[in-house]
Structure formats: C-alpha cells, structure tokens
Design brief:
By secondary structure, the protein is an alpha+beta fold. The protein has helices spanning 3-6, 8-58, 154-194, 213-263, 270-299, 310-318, 341-358, 411-416, 424-434, 461-470; strands at 75-79, 85-88, 110-115, 124-134, 137-146, 306-309, 326-330, 336-339, 362-370, 383-390, 438-442, 449-455.
Length: 477
C-alpha cells in the first residue's frame, strides 16, 4: 500500500511541497541566471568597447590597417566622415556598415543589438559605437560580438536544472521519510485503539521510543485515558454488584414474609408482618433515595444557590431526636455560605447520623470561621468550618479515604448498623465538592472527627438584618 493510499492527506501535502520547492527553485535559478547573464553581458560590452576604443585611438595617428588584425573581437569596422567603410576585420571586408547609429558625442559610446544586416541570418550581435576625430572630421568605429544566450553557457544551464531536480527530489524524499516516520507510530496507536474493546480493558497501547516525542506523549496520554476508563468501568461493575446485593436482601426478606403468609394465612400476624414489611420498604426507600441523590450529583445537575446559614442547619439538626445520644451543639456566630439548602441539610444529616451510629454516648457539632487570605490586599471571605466529633472508636488512618467510597463499610459499621447502605458518607463528600468545599477525617483525641470546609459567602442585607434583630454579630471580628 502506497503512502498516498495510506496517508492521502500527507501525500497531497508532499505533492504540494514538491511543487512549491520546484517553483521556488526555478524562481531562484531564474534570478541567478538573469544575474549571471547580466554580468556576462556587461563584461562583453566592456570588452567590445575596449577593442573599438583601441582602434579609434589609432585613427588620429594614421595607423589603422586593413584588414584590422584579429583580436578578442572579430567584428570591427571604421567608418569615415562620408559614411564609407575604410577599414574592417577580415570577416567584414567588402561588407556595408554593420549599423547606422552613432554616439551622442565623442566622449561616450553607444550600444545596441543588431540582427541580420551583414551578419549571418538568425544571429544577433552586440554592437558598440565609438567616435574619433581626425583633422576635425568625425570617424565612427563599430565593434560587434555575438549576443550571450539567456542560459549563458550550456554547462551552467545543465548545472541549474540538475540542481533544481536534485534539490526537489531530496526535499520530497526527506519529507516523505519524516512524515512516514512520524505517522507510523500514530498508525500503530490508531490500529490498537481500533481493536480495543470492553473485553480487553487491561490492554494498553505500546509506547514508542522517546525519539518519536509526539507519538510517545500521545501513547502515554491514551494509556492514561484507558486507565481512567478501566477504573470507571470497574467501579461501575462493582457499583452494580453492590447495589444488586443491597437491594436483594430486603426484597428477599419481603418475599419470604409474603410467601409464609400465603402458605398459612390463618397463622399470620398482620400487624407484625406489616411492621416487618415496612422495615424492609424503609430500607429499599433509603437505598433508592441515596441512588437518586448520587445520580443527580453525578450528572452535575445545577441547583439554585442561595445564602444558607450553616449555623442554622446545625441548630436544626441538633433539635432532632437521635436515639438517646447526647448531641452537643456549638453553632457560634452566623456562618453564611452560598449553596443548596436541601443538599447542605442532607450533608449535615448524613454526618450526624454516621456519628450517632459510631458514638458511645456523645456527639459534638462545632461551627466556626477560618479567616481568608489577606495577602491580596483585600479581605477575602474565608471558609466556613463544621466539625462533627463522636466519642466512638474512631476511623483508622488507613481507612480514612476508603470510607468515602460507595458501599464501603468497615466491620464496626456493619456490626453497629447492619441495614446501612454505605452511601451516606460518599453522598456527603460529593455534596461538599459540588459546593467547592472539602470533607475529610482529621485527627482527634477520641473518636472520629469529620471536618467540612465550605467557602464563605459575602453577607447580604437580609441576613444582616435577621442577625441584628437576633442581637447576633454580622461577622466574626
């Protein structure tokens, strides 16, 4: 398969490059030939002028011979004041004057091109006319030499043509090698990608040597993208497996209860079965709600942003009953962020529910401000900080990232809450990230310490008015 068939665009490029190089080479050769021709013509004119001037110098001394001795110039005529030829070289003996033009004065010479006349048919001669004075009479001396052809010399023309052909050929050949050499690794990458399929997720593109820098970088980028795709697909498979497992448990329980009721309807305690079914339905509803929330977060569906007082959300959460655990709130001053109130409330609720499940008796919620950067010369809003602390066993440092992965539940979590979905903390972190914030687990003296950081909003008039009526400060001093 030829390069034009494999790389039609590059073949056209090479053809275009060859044409451009040929045109430029021809143009440069033409300019060079013109320059050489001009210099050779000037040299010839000077030679003929010198020969005619030398003969003119002999006229006043009466030393002109007939025929005029041959020299470098073979065509010389001497015309007297009666316009008769009185002397000439042997090639022009018996011939009429070779030209009729004369110089404007004795000090100057005149040059013209004469074709035919006394010269052989089809030949043009460069004729130079000079004048001399003898006894007050003007004499005209003509010198002539064959015109130099435009190519100056056949060897020079052959050299020029050969140089153009050789240069064009070398440039096209070099360009071909460079283009094909660069495209071969790219073609290999394309072929490997074409054969790639979901069944070959672990397959990677061979990386060319560093000498092919662009193809080398392209292969590394493609492999990095394939790594991400493989990770996403494996995560999707694991997600499907986990959600299927979590959905199967309550469905299986409800099916067994309904089948038992159908087998022995008279022995069924309707109230007891109803409560059991409701418990399974609650678990199903919780899973479906979490999945719906994750789907919205993954899709990046935009939500309305409004000023939300994080301290108010924490206070509302503290007022909710929490299975007999002691909830301590330290809301501090009003801390306003821009965000979706419902999602931020869900975030706080998930953190508190997780802390309640793992605490021994006490959960602490603390809201504060982190000052902004003052190096820019203007006061920046800073960060709102929410800390949720429990007095449980805590989270080992090695597991502090894994607990934010979907359906990941530590052994203690499974023991304390067998019906948990393992989606609460992943949802909380994703909500924080959607609000340009972070959610991490940091060191504490006892138990786990979840820290949420969100950008503070520039306070608006309505919030300032509410806080002033409450007697609260409008900003942290």
């Amino acid at each position: 398969m030829g390069v034009r068939e494999r790389y039609p665009v590059k073949a056209r490029f090479l053809l275009f490059l060859g044409i451009v190089v040929a045109v430029l080479g021809t143009l440069m050769s033409g300019i060079l030939m013109f320059t050489v021709h001009r210099m050779a013509t000037d040299s010839l004119t000077n030679t003929v002028t010198a020969a005619a001037t030398e003969v003119a110098a002999l006229i006043p001394r009466g030393q002109v011979q007939t025929p005029i001795p041959d020299g470098v110039v073979h065509y010389i005529q001497v015309i007297n004041s009666q316009h008769r030829v009185v002397a000439a070289t042997k090639e022009l003996l018996g011939r009429p004057p070779i030209a009729s033009f004369v110089p404007s004065n004795v000090e100057n010479e005149s040059t013209s091109v004469v074709c035919g006349r006394v010269f052989p048919s089809g030949q043009c001669q460069l004729v130079v006319a000079v004048q001399a004075i003898d006894n007050g009479k003007l004499w005209t001396i003509y010198g002539a030499a064959p015109m130099i052809p435009f190519y100056v010399d056949p060897l020079l023309a052959m050299f020029m043509v050969s140089g153009i052909v050789l240069t064009v050929g070398l440039i096209i050949f070099s360009s071909y090698r460079i283009v094909v050499g660069c495209l071969e690794p790219v073609e290999t990458i394309r072929a490997n990608l074409h054969d790639h399929s979901p069944a070959r997720l672990g397959h990677r593109i061979p990386v060319p040597s560093a000498s092919h820098r662009e193809a080398h970088d392209l292969a590394n980028t493609v492999n990095h993208t394939l790594d991400q795709i493989q990770s996403m697909m494996e995560g999707q498979r694991q997600f499907t497996f986990d959600i299927s497992h979590d959905l199967r448990s309550p469905i299986t329980a409800m099916r067994a209860q309904v089948e038992d009721a159908l087998l022995a309807p008279l022995e069924v305690d309707v109230s007891r079965m109803g409560h059991a079914l409701l418990a399974s339905l609650d678990r199903l509803q919780a899973i479906v709600s979490d999945l719906l929330m994750l789907a919205k977060l993954d899709a990046g569906i935009p939500t309305s942003r409004e000023p939300v007082d994080l301290a108010d959300l924490v206070t509302a959460e503290c007022d909710r009953p929490h299975s007999g655990k002691d909830i301590v709130c330290e809301p501090g001053p009003a801390v306003v962020v821009n965000g979706d109130r419902l999602r931020l409330a869900r975030l706080v609720n998930n953190l508190v529910d997780n802390a309640v499940r793992h605490s021994s008796s006490r959960v602490t919620l603390r809201v504060s401000r982190q000052p902004g950067d003052l190096s820019a010369g203007a006061r920046l809003p800073g960060l709102a900080v929410l800390e949720v602390l429990d007095d449980g066993g805590g989270v080992p440092p090695v597991d502090r990232d894994s607990v934010f992965k979907r359906f990941i539940r530590l052994e203690e979590g499974r023991r304390r809450d067998p019906n948990g979905t393992g989606l609460g903390l992943p949802i909380a972190r994703q909500i924080a990230e959607c609000h340009d914030g972070t959610l991490t687990i940091e060191d504490s003296l006892q138990g786990a310490r979840f820290v949420l950081r969100l950008p503070l909003a520039m306070e608006t008039a309505p919030f300032r008015g509410v806080r002033e009526r409450r007697g609260e400060p409008t900003h942290a001093e």
